[in-house]
Each structure stands twice: as C-alpha cells, then as structure tokens.
Design brief:
elongated; single chain; Rossmann fold; 2 domains; 14 strands; binds S-adenosylmethionine; 7-stranded mixed sheet; alpha/beta; 11 helices
C-alpha cells in the first residue's frame, strides 16, 4: 500500500441528530471558511446528515488538515466520502464494493456500516448487521484490514442499494459507531440525566484527562441537582458534592455520605470554599447560564465547569456562538487559561453540553 495515496474525495458527510441539519451545515461552512475549503451544502430537513460537496476533490491528507472534528458541536461524525453509489447488484453487492474500496489505496483499522439516525435508517440496521460479516471477511482476504492503520472505513447506507463509501482518521473523528456512544443506564442511578454527564465526561475529556480532572477527594457543586443523576456520577468517582435544589434528592445518593443537600437558589448560591467542579443542569435561558458559569470561573468559586445550554427554537447555532463568545471574553479579560468544549451529545435533545477546563 502506498504511504500517501492520491485517492480524491468529493465531499464531507456529516452525521447529526435529525432536525439539526441547519446547525451542522452552519458549523461546517464556518470551519471551511477558516481553512479555505471551497464547497457547498446539500441537505434535507430531518435526514440526519449533511453533505459538504467540495468544489474540487481533495486527498484524505488535505481534508484531515482542514477539518477539526473536535471543534464541531452539532456534528456527530465527519467522514470523507466519494460520490453516491447506486444500483448495487442485489445478488452481489460485495464485489463492486471491494473494487471501490481497493481504489482508495489504504488499509483500515476498522469497518463501520452506518445509516442516518432516523426511523428509515433504523430499518436498515438489520441489513447492515447481516452484511457486516461477509464484507469484513472479504476485506481481510484482500489484506485491506490492518490494526495499525490510522484510517477507519465507513459505509453509509441510505438504502440497501444507495451508499457512500467514506473514511475517517481515528484521531480526527468520533470513535463510536454512527458517532453515538452506547451507555447502559446504571441500575441504581436516580435519573436518566445521569447518562448525559457520563457521556459528557467520556466524549469531551480524553481518558487521561478523566483521570487527571476527576480524582477521588475532589469537590463539586451541582446546581439544579434534584433528583441526583449528575451528583450520582460524581459520587461514583468519590468526589464530594454540594447539591443545590429546592427539589428532593434521591435517598441512596445521600446515603453515600459524600453529598450535602442545600435548598437554595442556584443563581444566588456561592460555596464557602472554592471547589474543583461546578455542575449545572438548571433549565434556564442559555445566556443566563453562560453568565452564571463565567462568574463562577472568574470569581474563582470553581476550577472547571460542566453545564447544559438549552437551545431556543430559532437561531440555535447563533445562540451557541453567543454563549461561547460571552465565556471566552470573560475568561480572557480575567487572564484565565482555559479550554471550552461543546457538543450536542446523543443524550441531549434541544440542548448542548459544555465543559470548561482551566489549565
Ligand atoms: C433537569 S433537572 C436536573 C436533573 C439532575 N441534573 C439529575 O441528573 O437528576 C433541573 C433541576 O433544576 C432545578 N432548578 C431550576 N431552577 C433552579 C434554581 N434557580 N435554583 C436551584 N435549582 C433550580 C429544578 O428544581 C430541577 O430539579
């Protein structure tokens, strides 16, 4: 296999939550502008994906340099793809597919067979499961699979005969199938919101960062804590929590001995001592939350913060950018070295989750 294959890709395919195609399109257009990529958007409402069609086809290396998956908020996955392949013969889809895959000139670390995350897409998942085994066996026979490769092979099925073949660098893409992390609801956690915080830590922090920033003995405040799903995640990590909410906390979380519950207004409360983490899951206007988080960070009440921004019905992307800019301005004016990471998680609906890490 050539080290620097010259195969050219015609588009970026971006997967997103159905209904958020506009936001996904806006963010890829903005990123493309900053990196001088030329192209245009093709998308359908509620399709669960967006195409950014390149004015000129580019190599995987060029695209990888231009695109930063980490910076994208509404994009679950981003792959470099060819043109749509239609009319695959029903009696032998594999032979023509293998020919196309060979022409990319790369070996692959893994194979994902994916669909849009829509009801139509879900109907294809049985087909994808059945197709996976024969395809990967064939790829292995052709020496196209190699654990050491940086590249993952994605086949995106719109139907059993209309597909895109794409690739993604494992260093610049979501690690999970369809860009969706699979988490099991912990049996004794008090609310499903617990999955949101678990997903936030696993998605927005690397494993090394999780070890560094979520250590036994650390302290936190959870604003809007009831019934305790987020608090539960901290307790699992042996982190102390001051839980602020007029609502009740789950007795099992309180039994841990790590939680103090205070009936107070989350917009007024400040902790007696600075804490490592501020958690905030109060349902409020996003700019109001962003201002609160900025105040906690700037006044030194917390080192790091994780919070939700509930999005308005319209101008959702603009609102995210306004909140980001508010936080950035506050941190820069205070001379704080920080990093903001934002993502619409699988467990987020009309909202996104953000982490601010102070260095
Ligand atoms: C989405 S729920 C939080 C769920 C929680 N994170 C969990 O995992 O179980 C929002 C909570 O915010 C609380 N809340 C809303 N406004 C608040 C305020 N101003 N001060 C304190 N709590 C507030 C509500 O009482 C509600 O329990």
């Amino acid at each position: 296999m050539a080290d620097t294959p010259q195969h050219l890709f015609y588009q970026l395919l971006l997967y997103c939550r159905a209904g958020f195609e506009k936001e996904c399109a806006s963010e890829i257009q903005l990123q493309a502008q900053h990196t001088n990529l030329q192209g245009y958007i093709k998308t359908k409402p509620d399709s669960g994906y967006v195409q950014y069609v390149l004015a000129e086809p580019l190599s995987a290396q060029e695209l990888n340099k231009a695109i930063s998956y980490q910076q994208l908020v509404f994009t679950r996955q981003c792959i470099f793809a060819g043109n749509i392949i239609k009319d695959l013969p029903v009696d032998d889809r594999i032979t023509p597919l293998i020919e196309q895959i060979k022409s990319i000139g790369l070996q692959f670390n893994d194979l994902y067979l994916e669909t849009p995350d829509t009801n139509d897409g879900k109907q294809m998942s049985g087909f994808c499961k059945k197709f996976f085994h024969p395809l990967i066996q064939n790829l292995k026979r052709q020496s196209l699979m190699n654990q050491a490769s940086e590249w993952r092979l994605h086949i995106f099925f719109l139907s059993s005969s209309a597909i895109y073949i794409g690739i993604a660098s494992i260093h610049n893409s979501a690690a999970d199938h369809m860009g969706i992390i699979r988490l099991q609801m912990p049996r004794n956690a008090p609310s499903r919101s617990t999955l949101k915080l678990e997903e936030a830590f696993k998605t927005l922090l690397s494993e090394k960062e999780q070890q560094k920033y979520l250590r036994t003995g650390m302290t936190s405040v959870d604003l809007g804590a009831s019934p305790g799903g987020w608090t539960w995640q901290m307790v699992q990590r042996n982190i102390k929590v001051i839980a602020i909410d007029n609502g009740n906390m789950d007795p099992a979380v309180m039994d841990s001995g790590l939680v103090v519950h205070q009936h107070a207004d989350g917009f007024v409360y400040t902790p007696p001592e600075p804490v490592d983490w501020l958690l905030c899951d109060m349902v409020e206007r996003p700019l109001h939350i962003a201002r609160l988080i900025a105040r906690w960070l700037v006044d030194g009440h917390c080192k790091h913060a994780v919070f939700n921004l509930k999005l308005p019905m319209k101008q959702r992307y603009q609102m995210v950018e306004d909140c980001r800019s508010l936080l950035e301005t506050a941190m820069q004016q205070a001379g704080i070295r920080y990093e903001i990471r934002m993502k619409q998680l699988y467990h987020d609906r009309e909202e996104i989750t953000c982490i601010v890490i102070r260095h």
